[in-house]
Amino acid sequence: MMNSQSGFALALLGAASVALGGAITARAQAPAGSVWAGVYTAEQAERGKAAYAGECASCHGATLAGIDVAPALVGAGFLNNWNNTSAGDLFTRIKETMPLSAPGSLGGRTVSDIEAYLFQANGFPTGEIALPPSAPLMAGVKIVAQKPAQ
Ligand code: HEC
C-alpha cells in the first residue's frame, strides 16, 4: 500500500517530467508547414544518403529507382502515393516496416536522416533545422507533391 506522502512525491515527479517533456517537445518540434518550406538540413541528407546506401539500396536501388517489387522512392509515383500525408506518416512507414528484411531495426535519428535524403532526392529544398527524430515531432510537416506557386 502506498502512503499519502509517497503518493505526493510521485505526483510531483510526474508533474516535473511532464514539464520537462513539454520543454523538449517545444524545442525539437519541426515547424508546421509543407516540405517546400525547408524542413531538413543538407548535412542531415548527407548522413541519410550513407545510411540509405547501407540499409535500403540493395532493394530500392542505388538511384532510388526501385528494383523488381521494391518501388521507386523518387519521382511522380512515389510522390503521388505520399501526397497530402505528413512527414510523420512516411517516418512511421519506414520505421515500422523497413528495411523489409529487418523492420524496426533502425533508430529514429537514422530514419529521419534517410527521410531527409528522400526529400532531397525528390527535389524538396534544404533548410536550417533538421527533421526531428520521431513521428509526432514532424506530424505538422505536410508532404505536398507539387511546388506551390510563389
Ligand atoms: C529487403 C528489401 C527491402 C529493403 C532492404 C528495404 N525495402 Fe522498402 N520496400 C521493399 C518492398 C518489397 C516494398 C513494397 C512492399 C511493401 O510495402 O512491403 C517496399 C516499400 C517501401 C516504401 C513504400 C513506398 C511507397 O511509395 O508507398 C518505402 C517508403 C520504403 N520501402 C522505404 C525503405 C527505406 C527507407 C529502406 C531503408 C531503411 C527500405 N525501404 C529498405 C523492400 C525493401
Automatic annotation (TrEMBL):
The record's listing under Gene3D superfamilies reads: Cytochrome c-like domain
The domain of life for this entry's organism is Bacteria
InterPro entries this protein is in? Cyt_c-like_dom (IPR009056), Cyt_c-like_dom_sf (IPR036909)
Keyword Metal-binding in the entry? The reply is yes
Write one Gene Ontology MF term: heme binding
Keywords (alphabetical) are: Heme, Iron, Metal-binding, Signal
Q: Where is the signal peptide?
A: 1-21
Does this UniProt record's set of keywords contain Signal? yes
Q: Using the record for this protein, list the coiled-coil segments as residue ranges, or answer none.
A: none
A UniProt-annotated Pfam family: Cytochrome_CBB3
Q: Where is the Cytochrome c domain?
A: 43-122
The protein, known as = Cytochrome C
Q: What is the organism field in this record?
A: Sphingomonas hengshuiensis
Classification from the root reads: Bacteria, Pseudomonadati, Pseudomonadota, Alphaproteobacteria, Sphingomonadales
